[in-house]
Design goal:
Length: 125
C-alpha cells in the first residue's frame, strides 16, 4: 500500500514539472518528511527522474532553434563548479545535504516573495 504514496509523490512532482516549476521542489520534501526516505536517496531519485525528461526537452528546444548557445559557457562553468563543490557535502551526510537543500528552498521562497512585492509596487505606479 505504501507504493501508492510514492506514486502520489511522483504524480505531484510531475504536475509541477509540467507547469514549469521544478518537480523536485515538492517531491523531495514529500519523500523525506512524509515517507521517511533519507535525503540523499530522495535527491538521487529526483535526479534520475529529471535526466531523461530534461534530455528530451533539450532535444525539442534544439530542434526548434530555441537554445542560445553564446551564454552556455557562462551557465555551464558555474554549474560544474557548484557540482564539484556540492559533491563534498554529499559525501558528508544526509543531514548536511538536507540543511543545504532547506536553505536553498528558503532562498527560492524569498526570491519569489521579493519579486512578487516588487511587481505589486511597480503595477501600482
Amino acid at each position: 500500500m505504501q507504493w501508492l504514496w510514492f506514486a502520489a509523490a511522483g504524480i505531484c512532482g510531475g504536475v509541477l514539472a509540467g507547469m514549469g516549476m521544478g518537480g523536485g521542489t515538492l517531491t523531495i520534501p514529500i519523500l523525506v518528511l512524509l515517507l521517511s526516505v533519507d535525503q540523499l536517496t530522495a535527491q538521487f531519485a529526483n535526479l534520475i527522474a529529471f535526466l531523461p525528461t530534461g534530455a528530451a526537452a533539450l532535444g525539442v528546444h534544439l530542434k526548434n532553434g530555441l537554445v542560445e548557445r553564446a551564454p552556455l559557457p557562462w551557465v555551464l562553468l558555474p554549474a560544474l563548479a557548484a557540482t564539484a563543490a556540492t559533491s563534498f557535502f554529499a559525501a558528508d551526510s544526509s543531514e548536511v545535504l538536507g540543511k543545504l537543500y532547506g536553505g536553498f528552498l528558503v532562498l527560492i521562497a524569498l526570491g519569489g516573495l521579493i519579486g512578487g512585492v516588487a511587481a505589486n509596487f511597480s503595477a501600482r505606479k
